[in-house]
Amino acid sequence: MKTDQPNRRFGPEFVAEQKRRYGHRRPEGRPLSYDLAVEDEYGPWRAWLDAQLALLPDKHADTYARNLWRDQNFWSDHIELAAGEALRASGLRVEYERLWGTQTPDWTVLDAEGRPIALVEVLTHSPSKELFGRMKAWHDLVERVKQIPVPVVLTVAGFRDRPLDAPDARTAKKIAQDLRRYLLSPLLQAELPSQGYRFLVTADRKTGATMQAPGMRAILVPPSGRAGVVSAQPLVAGIEEKVSKYRTLAEEAGLPLIVAAGADKFTGLGIEQLDCLLNGTPTVTVQFDYGDTYIHNPIEFQPDNPPRWAMPSELAGVLWVDNEFPFTAMWRANAKARTPVPQRLTATWKR
Q: Are strands 315-321 and 228-230 parallel, antiparallel or unpaired?
């Protein structure tokens, strides 16, 4: 363990290195986490990461440090570290990826004598790779459009029955060039065709005048790709897979099994949706952005027969980890768990 230099991983040297590697690139060429890695306002966040990694063996801390700023690792690594922090809040010890035969649960909770008292596996609900790829592609175009010095708000004309394909990098570059030419022209059009897409100059609904973007740059509000019903059903399916994987180990060890769950911010999923599913509450949450035309609805909902999830008896409960810094933990116990969690472990968690 190394705890004498809490800022050695993500302190000033790290910030300077991130700026050296990515600061010269156009914004669309930077990682999505770039601002979090370099801006002063996120210094407390980076200090929190330093503190978490300082509590891990160096080989694990090194792996986290290499991977967690990557777009595909960012939220899953943060949820995993935040789960560890929530477990330590009880004053008990935790061990990361302890080997149990051939299995390695993410966290093993230990008492003062070093005896295991709980097994914890972490699950992060994330967008599919395909959806994330589309969102990243639109983000690249958004960053290119920001370079146009005309303060207007643009949207993309899409379809109501299917998602709009995102442009590849080469197409995005051509679109940005076309939009720059259109917007700098003295004759501002309401509709701007480019590369098979139609971009719309947004008007204020009350006045009919062109909507002004804050600052002096153009803003593109693209299709988010995540519009639709927000449900915890995919999350609980993942939880049940975790339980299936570790139930035998938990039973043989005589230990309670906890799943610590969280969600990527892009999913819109929160504790509210999990509670609705646990309680059978007839509530529907739909998320969409200003630029969305296609609202995907993959989940049927019947108000008079809302879905309800009963935790498997092998599951002691779900520890929900919020994705807002400083990552609050909330506990949802399974009243019918075969092996409940010791009260001293859950005493500090919100209900």
A: unpaired
